[in-house]
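Weekly structure sync - notes
Attendees: PM, LS, DV (DV joined late)
Agenda: review two folding runs queued last week.

Item 1: First target. Sequence and structure tokens pasted below for the record.
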Amino acid sequence: MPFLRPMLRRLFRSLSPYLSPFRVVILLGLAGAISAGCVSLEEQQRKWIFQPSRDAWRGGMAAAEGMQDIWIEFDSRVDNAPAKLHALWHPADRADAPVLLYLHGARWDVRGSAGRMRRMQELGFSVLGVDYRGFGRSSGELPSEDSAYEDARQAWAWLAKNYPDRPRYVFGHSLGGAIAIDLAASMDDLDGLIVEGTFTSIPAVVSSFKWGWLPVSPLITQRFDSASKIARVKAPVLIVHGGNDSLIAPALGQALYDAAPARKKWLLVEGGSHHSTNTIGHSQYRDAIAELFGWPAAAAAAMGTPPGAILR
């Protein structure tokens, strides 16, 4: 549809001063895909949703120091090819600590989330953070919704194989929240799901933008439809959102909470942005984990009691 190109360029040039960079990337990706055809539509959406990078956010490099490299190899049914995932392992001091699979969001590799991984470890988890294919040192070039789901399942299988007797949880931030929900909806060996700054679906995110009236939803192929999946999650669900999140509207997190089953908790961290909520709300996290999951270690820490005084 070549006739659309000049019109779309003018439209998005006029909108760009009013939109965040992330939203400009999304809308420009759709515009380019519309003008280029269906194959490009699929590829462009994968690029703008994941924004895959081999690099880490500069602030995460130091936080990743001392974490152990883990490699997970498997034959991909999605790509019909061998795949290799890189992950970081950050164990808790206690040998019987529950394990947590950490699923990061878009743009940076797993080292960019090392600070958040450390904070979850401080709450008592042993944490495995994995890079999807196309990120960091993992194989592949351009991830897709299906390949990211497969990668999460392989990382979960690694935890189940290596720590079969530990309680197992999954945590997803932003886009990683949608991947975590897909995983949790299909697993019975899950003790809890935690998501932060995530959404009901990609079309809902686009609709929440100032210019969300544009009729682009039917064109979105990478939909990450968490709202339809979360009702199938059997484990307790903790949904966290920053009150000042300007990237993913808190209303989307609230809508996800409303769609979740009964064993759930909504935590709105006042003053938290898309990237600072985990830091600002750290003590609230501790209390919520103790309340929802009935986890003595978290309860002990919330009271200032050494975990060993309760867990023997």
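Item 2: Second target, run right after the first with the same settings.
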Amino acid sequence: MRSKLIKDFFKEIYVNRKRFISIILIVMLGVGFFSGIKATTPSMKYTAHKYFEDVVFMDFTMKSTLGFTDSSIDILKNNVEDIENIYPTYSKDMIINLNDSDKVIKVFSINHDVNKLNLVEGKMPTNSDEILVDAKLSIDLGAIVNIENDNFLKSTSLKVVGKVESPLYISVERGNSNIGDGKISGFIYVSEDLINSDVYTDLYITLKNPENFLTYSKEYSDYISSVNSKLENLLDELNEDRYNDSINGSMWASIPTTYIFTRADNIGYSEYKDNSEKIDAIGKVFPIIFFVVSALVCLTSMTRMVEEQRLQIGTLKALRIF
């Protein structure tokens, strides 16, 4: 009798194979969707971590109303052992005429060692009057760009030789400004030889990160917070050093203000994190829907099969087999 029941059991599975296949496929779809969504956020964050490593993305950016000198760099290196490198650079918001209207653009000096650029089209500059422009700007290669003169640049008529992508701008947003219409339309990179400044405007700082904490991880955030505290403790010394240095060359020097920015203050960096966490939130809701649907399909299929086999079940119970 047992062998006949087992034979009948497999026969029922074969007869109702479409139902069983449907149940299996729906369950597999739910599990696959759940696994894929849950794996997306860690994959996105790890991909970002590798990208930021490859382009040597800064851990901190420092800005000062009076700029920085080599003395400023020495103060930081001598007092913060976590610092791996400090890259002094120049940047400023300026106005160019683009498509017959004035637009605000961010001017950076080219630095091949930090926040490395990705050349999309054209070539790297070989002369001081050649520049790289934001790949999103509607400026053709070979075009002459005229920048409003405010003595920050030695020349304001510059030739576009390349289009680039910058790790400082991994989102479509380019940030805000306190000049022009208040909105930055794009960025350009110029040779340091073109900069007319005795002091650095920015310091890009990279950390040793001996534990190789992953970007966006809590461990990395805690590490940044601890180093940030050390940098903040040096602000008075940095400001005093710049003030004393400025007094020697100017009677109207004022005490400077120094600002510290982390990766989290970068628009693109923060947006990427927010987007990855939104996907993680979706992954907590959508799979539940699939599992509920799978459970309902299983319940419906099994109920129908019980109804169809009610006579056989009753007979087996009457014979006290079950």
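Discussion on item 2: The chain has seven helices and eleven strands.
Action: LS to circulate a short write-up before next sync.
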